[in-house]
Amino acid sequence: MSGGAAGQGPDRYPVEWEADVVLRDGTTTHVRPIRPEDADALQRFHVGQSERSTYLRFFAPMERLSERDLERFTRVDHVDRVALVAVRPRDGADAGTPDARAREAQEDIIGVARFDRTGTSEAEVAFNIADSAQGRGLGSVLLEHVAAAARERGVRRFTAEVLPQNGKMLAVFREAGYDVRQQMDDGFVQVSVDLDPTERSRAVMADREHRAEARSMQGLLGATSVVLVGPGVPPGDGPDHDGAPLDRVLAHRALAALVRSPDVTVHVVGAGADVPDGGAAPRTHATLADVPGLVDLAVVALPPPEAIDAVRQLARLEVRGVVVLSAGFAETGPEGLALQRELLRVAHTAGLRVVGPASYGLLRTGEARERPAIAATLAEDLPLPGVVGLFSQSAPMAVTLLATTARRGLGVSSFLSAGHRADVSGNDLMQYWQDDAATQVVCLYLESIGNPRKFSRIARRLASVKPVVVVTAGRSGQVVPPGHAVRSTRAPRRTLEEMLRQSGVIRAENTHHMIDIAQLLAHQPLPRGRRVGILASSASLAALVAEASSSAGLVVARSDFLPEDASSDELAATVDALYAPDACDVVVVVQVPVVHPRREDVSRAVALAAARTGRTTVASMLGLHGLTDELAAPAPDVPDGGAPDALLRVPAYSTPEDAVAALGAVVRYARWREADHGAPVRPAGVDAGRARALVEGALAGRDAVDLDPATTADLLACYGVRLWPARWVRTADEAVEAAREVGWPVALKSTAAGLRHRADLGGVRLDIADETELRSDVAQMREALAAVLPGAADQPLEVQAMADAGVACVVRSTEDQLFGPVVSFGLAGDAVDLLGDVAYGVPPLTDVDVAAMVRSVRAAPRLFGYMGTHVVATAALEDVLARVSVLADDLPEVRSLELYPVVVSEHEAAVLSARVTLADAQRADALRRALPG
Asked: Which of 64, 89, 855, 876 is most buried, with most CB under 10 Å away?
């Protein structure tokens, strides 16, 4: 949703307000602005309400809406009078209607939210939720969306008259997290809601989003009834014969997996009913209309137009989600993208989540009735049960992931391939896995990230309780595979790295590295420290492991080698010493015999010691890879008669370097878990409301604008950043007058782009103490500038009071289409710019994030007394950086902001120059819940 009102004319239908949303019960609905043609649907909605609901809304009985009311309620200008409706397919509507407008005429309204402006920044708001939709969180969703629309139109406060007995509506206001005031007046509750977002309103929205999205995934992965819809099998044709259509092959493969789920009822439409040995016979039907009762999940393998029609018919079965195996959508070009969007529109309006298109499917392992297993996937070999949750996007990567886990013997709790990631994404799975006790490790292969801000927010919360391992396609994470609808980005490549670091996820180099890390996390405890003990079969191997450990950030506490011909007593003594209390925190064991066979007593001794002490252990032993019985030992706390598979396994790696790389990554994660991550920065003296009004006023009627110095200073002042005054002059006399005004000594600067910070090119003169020196410097600067850059001598000059000597720094923020606000920090100077010595942060930032940004640049020692210089006021610098991060987070219209230079002395951080560009914004992670599409 746009952050400003630029370009918004009366009566223009605001299509950007349309959104698909997930409700509290995990189902979906479509929210959009009301239209005049909704009059019949609005009348049906009104007539279908109970007398009590009608009375609570209108304070009087009203059997039907009059023609005048229908006209007034459905014809709005979308500026001063706004109404949003939540819709679903009408019962009995023609599912095959091809025209979008005709289908919309067959929609039922299940909720209405509207406001009428009563003042410049105030409006009266009202809601009405269908009796059948109450208790699903629809009122809260509509409040978020209508509040976002109101803010865009310059409304900062809602008012409402509510009957005291309307407790549900009062709760919607009270529980939303906004600043709310209520008082009784003449038998009504007068409610006033400030629409500026608060920390609590953001937290409430995030919590509701988490619960709704987790429940929607539970509806898919916990399905106990499935309908498979395929293209049909002509008589005499087998589904896998040479030349069979691909969709037919997909349907057959999916059926082969589905019938291996004993607790799942399988219905089949048009996919044949050949059942592999050991599978339960499915229930076959000629058409979807013949499928009885309700169904949890649908699997579709049809060409795009037929797939969309099938999804439309699924509404009758109240299906929670659909897995689209077939391709032919957005990857084929604009027409395919339009089909993909139509698929989402149909599914979300009917209450379904969409996995795919071009998905490899989903599965959940389980052996108990309370956690039934389901396999709605193209995989022929299903993974072992385990504790690792796997997410991938394209089907080929899903094949690789599942094959790799199978080779390692690594068990999986659940798996989902999002295909084109049109709807269900890794964010949804992380929401689910946070609450899923069976999942202890999360692995994500991300070919693209559609909403990095939301990813960062969810991943940070999840990583605080469960490890999250991520592989991105390419180091930049900016690869956009065919079929993925992803916003473009101009953010530096390091932005993704910083976002992942802030989130606390473990970034793996590739699939091999990710599974290396996962098998360690799944089968060993988190390390208690970074002191490593090494046991190797030769001194040369011990030295190699020690070097690799140091490179991985580990500290070698002890290093032992065990010769191939060591006796059993020597083996026992060496292992006991290595696992002695306080000997080390983690252990690396490497055994590569040269002339003798590998000794199994070494692996058994190590496995028993690791299980007995709970010390994190990895191994690289010739002939062992993954999770093997040879490196397994009973957990010490398993009682007699406990589960026979309650074993602790030491993961084995192909090379010592692989083992140490995985261990180093897990040690860093364990330290992140234990560290203090700080609190979100909340600087004092911030006037966000005034800043918002200033931005809206400056942007009114324009797509983009560069703020003048006075407006720039006003905007910064709203966030407590003082811009040092400066005066633009053209003559020596004006310069002298300006110097007298700001106070001697002064600095004289060129305002020409590219020269304003270049003392080496004559664009800056400092410490000018008197009138004579200033007049001389004006003349000399004009002459020097003319020689360097013709035309620069005609530009105004700037006079500014001298700040105390210090270190010059640069603070910037940019609004990126993909990442949203990106804040950067560095020290000023060509060398720093050329070497890329810049730290990046993606707001919202904590105080710890801000401090880390300042200290992470390589030139940071200059701030802390390098070579005998004074230690500068880093606290003041961090305060400026924190305030800029809050400004950037609050105001997506700030396309770019530059504070250059910020001179940090012993006592203060002086902001000497600033530039701000505003532009209309479309931030992906807005202050309202919405699905992609």
From this structure: 89
Contact 230, 248 (CB under 8 A): yes
CA distances from 478 to 426, 475, 488, 506 (A): 16, 8, 8, 18
H/E element holding 25?
none
**Better-predicted residue by pLDDT, 616 or 490:** 616
| Token pair in block for residue 671 | 């330290």
**For 816, phi and psi rounded to 5 degrees?**
-95, 145
3-state secondary structure of 797: strand
- Quick: pLDDT tens for 644-685: 457 899 999 999 999 999 999 999 999 999 999 999 999 999
Residues contacting 810, CB < 8 A, separation 6+: 824, 825, 826, 827, 828, 898, 899, 900, 901, 902
CA 674 to chain centre: 23
Kindly tell me the sign of the dihedral angle through the C-alpha atoms of 132, 133, 136, 139. negative
Angstrom distance (rounded) from CA 211 to CA 203: 12
| Predicted confidence (pLDDT) at residue 759 exceeds the cutoff of 90 | no
Give how far Cα 821 sits from Cα of 384, 683, 723, 826, 891, Å: 42, 18, 21, 17, 9
**CA gap 812, 914 in Å, rounded:** 10
Place of tokens 């809602």: 158
Per-residue pLDDT for 239 more than 90?
Answer: no
Q: Flag whether pLDDT at 283 surpasses 60.
A: yes
* Contact assessment for residue 874 and residue 906, using Cβ atoms and an 8 Å cutoff: no
Q: In the chain, pLDDT over 70 holds for what percent of residues?
A: 92
Helix 656-674 × helix 452-463 angle, to 10°:
90
pLDDT score, position 232: 74
Our CA dihedral for 69, 70, 74, 77, rounded to 10 degrees, sits at -40
Which residue from 540, 664, 517 is spatially nearest to 592, judged by alpha carbons?
Answer: 540
State the Cα–Cα distance between residues 841 and 844, nearest whole angstrom. 9
3-state secondary structure 96-140: CCCCHHHHHCCEEEEEEEEEEECCCCEEEEEEEECHHHCCCCHHH
Q: What percent of the chain has pLDDT over 90?
A: 79
